[in-house]
Amino acid sequence: MEQLQLSYIRAIAAAAGCVVTQPEIDDGIDIELRQRHSAHVNFTDNTARLEIQLKSTASQANISEKEISTKMRRDRFDYYAAPAPLSVHKIVVIMKQPVDPAHWTYVRKKGLTLHHACYWVNLSGETSSASGYVAVNAPLTQVFDDIALCAMMERIGKGEAP
Fold it and tell me: What is the pLDDT of residue 139?
């Protein structure tokens, strides 16, 4: 399941003109995206950066009409909920995945389709009284696609939140 989500993120990042790095040690950052553009004036190297925690769920119970939810360890929640201003912005990306790998992709003459989308949420400034694991919800209106990623990187490049 993790490999499907990584493939999804890499495809979206490529379409958005982002460079993907994956830390060798998992300290809560699954993927870092970088996009260099002359419009990213908030940085001396014109590079906007975004750290991503990947989460997924195969449970239909975790999807409502308005949001998708998952649980996140409290220490990782606190890291992603750190209030602005941040040197590197952070988001959580949640993917709904079918359990059966036969339902992950569909190949036809016109191309490959990855089933199910990812949704993103910026937790900056959020708080929780939960201990152990914290519920994280991403609105279904915040689809993680190349258009959304380009808009996020543009905002980050201006010094704004994703």
Answer: 97
